Structures are given as structure tokens and as C-alpha cells.
UniProtKB/TrEMBL annotation:
<dbReference type="InterPro" id="IPR017853">
    <property type="entry name" value="GH"/>
</dbReference>
<dbReference type="InterPro" id="IPR044901">
    <property type="entry name" value="Trehalose_TreZ_E-set_sf"/>
</dbReference>
<keyword id="KW-0378">Hydrolase</keyword>
<dbReference type="InterPro" id="IPR022567">
    <property type="entry name" value="DUF3459"/>
</dbReference>
<protein>
    <submittedName>
        <fullName>Hydrolase</fullName>
        <ecNumber>3.2.1.141</ecNumber>
    </submittedName>
</protein>
<dbReference type="InterPro" id="IPR013780">
    <property type="entry name" value="Glyco_hydro_b"/>
</dbReference>
<keyword id="KW-0326">Glycosidase</keyword>
<feature type="domain" description="DUF3459">
    <location>
        <begin position="145"/>
        <end position="200"/>
    </location>
</feature>
<dbReference type="Pfam" id="PF11941">
    <property type="entry name" value="DUF3459"/>
</dbReference>
<dbReference type="GO" id="GO:0033942">
    <property type="term" value="F:4-alpha-D-(1-&gt;4)-alpha-D-glucanotrehalose trehalohydrolase activity"/>
</dbReference>
Amino acid sequence: MDFIQNHDQVGNRAQGDRLITLAGAERTKVLLATLLLSPHIPLLFMGEEYGESRPFLFFTDFHGDLARAVREGRAKEFADHAGENVPDPNAPETFQRSKLNWKQQHSEEGKAWLAFTRELLLLRQKHIVPLLSAAREISGTVLQTAPGFIAVSWRFPEGTLSLALNISATTVLLPDLPGKTLFAWPNESTGSLSQHSLIVRLAQGESAS
């Protein structure tokens, strides 16, 4: 199972920052598309489907000595992080701040994120899931790497799936990716991949390479 963030990673940060806060919306969209269009089983963290930006803080419902020990432990853990005022894990407001903002999915930005996620899931269901039924293993071959860039391919009895993503600040030349373009974000280009972008291609048939 693959994910780009989960409750452990987010909740154990001092301020519970989600990936969208740390990496920005454009990079996060590229990573989300990578997650949902790769052949491995994807895990979506709550609210990720509509671009939730509220933090997910470390919270507990402990009492007495245990509550005090956890509170002091969290403060000690981040004591060397300048300017970090770690929320009290046992305070009710820490839990309240971590709850999803369901109204966000109905905002214009939230609707766009949700439509983006649905498009990816539909592509996965239609084109990628059928490849998995005959798969003997799912191990990719790395075609090219550079700082912030990777291109990888997966070969199946029914075809070859290739994916390249670039979350760097520069344009990167693409290796040869066989087949037709299944998805490109934000738009398709020939021979190169601009910053904060991704392309997925599918070559169908046993002879695909």
C-alpha cells in the first residue's frame, strides 16, 4: 500500500501540517496523481480528496500522570525546534482544530480538487486496474532520475505503464515513454517535463516495451 501522507506523518509533526501546506498545491497535485495512477494500492488520508488544509495534530484523551507525561514528552521532543509552540495533546481545542472542514469541499477550490481526484480514480479504474489481474508481480523499472524528477515503468502481460513526474523548479528532458498518453498535468508537452508536472503513458499488448 502506498501513500503520500498518513496520520502518523502528519500528526507527529509539531503543528500537524499537511502536505498541501508544506509543499504547496501544485506539487501536491502532482504527487496525488502519481499515487493514484501508479499500480500499487493507494491510501488517501482523510480530506486529501478535496485538498483539506486544516492541520491534523497529535491529540489524546489521557488523564492524570499519563496526560502530563505525554504533554511534557511532546514539548521536550520539539524543544530544539526554534519557535515551535507545540499544542497540548490533551486540550479539547487540539482535537477540534484537527477535525475536517467539510465546507471546504463545497468551495470552488474544493470542488476542483474533488473533480481532479475523481478523474484520476476513473482513469485508474478503467486503464490500470485491468492490468493488475494478470500481474505476477508489481515491480517498476527506474528509467531516469534527477533531483525532484523520476521516470519509471511497470511491465504487465497486457501492457506497459510508464510515469514521469517533475516537482523540481526546472524543466527536465523526458526519456522515451512508450504508448499513448493516459494523463498529463497540467498539460502535455513533447520531449520534456516542466516544473510541477506529470505524464502517464500506457502501451497496450504483450509486446509493449
